Amino acid sequence: MIGKFLELNTVGVPLDRGNIDTDAIIPARYLKTLKRTGLGVGLFMAWRYDEGGAERPDFPLNRPEFRGGEVLVAGENFGCGSSREHAVWALMDFGFRAVIAPSFSDIFHNNCLKNGMLPVTLPAAEVRSLIDALLAAPGGKVRVDLPAQTVTGPNGDVHRFAIDPFTKKCLIEGLDEIGLTLTSAAEIDRYERERKKKTPWLFLDLAG
Length: 208
Prior knowledge:
Elements: E1 7-15, H1 22-25, H2 45-48, E2 71-74, H3 86-94, E3 98-101, H4 106-114, E4 118-121, H5 124-136, E5 141-145, E6 150-152, E7 158-160, H6 165-173, H7 177-182, H8 185-198
Parallel strand pairs: 1-2, 2-3, 3-4
Antiparallel strand pairs: 1-5, 5-6, 6-7
């Protein structure tokens, strides 16, 4: 199961860069773990920290005005590069629940949906206006309403986005692939009972 996604009304974090690849999102040395927690510290590591490990004060994630923001607004082709699912885990561990961009890598986009993160695709001009508004007034709020399929910027501008109805349903109900399968648990149990009656030899415990 994943967390249900309905609506966010949170500080928007602008990352005015395009073609952000998954190695920039989370360095390869963090891929040794299968845990989904603890990866936030490595998020955008090369950009967040200097050579001595100190935070770069001008990087958006380090600025006080953007702390705690749950919506990242970035440039085109977000999440390109290798297919590491850790990139999504790192974003979520840091606190993000949605990314808004003009386009996404297909694999990154699918990894977001499998983990309960909403990738919102908007026209480049609309993303540009959101980034400009957030840079002009740091700390501005962005509202993402999944049921209504709208994004409301800090200036009150409303942007509509498209999403597959089945994907939308899974996000709203908090269902990943396992959770979706378990919604059919009664049917699965019934099939197994009937199958056992018809082909009992398939269920023999040969190890015993």
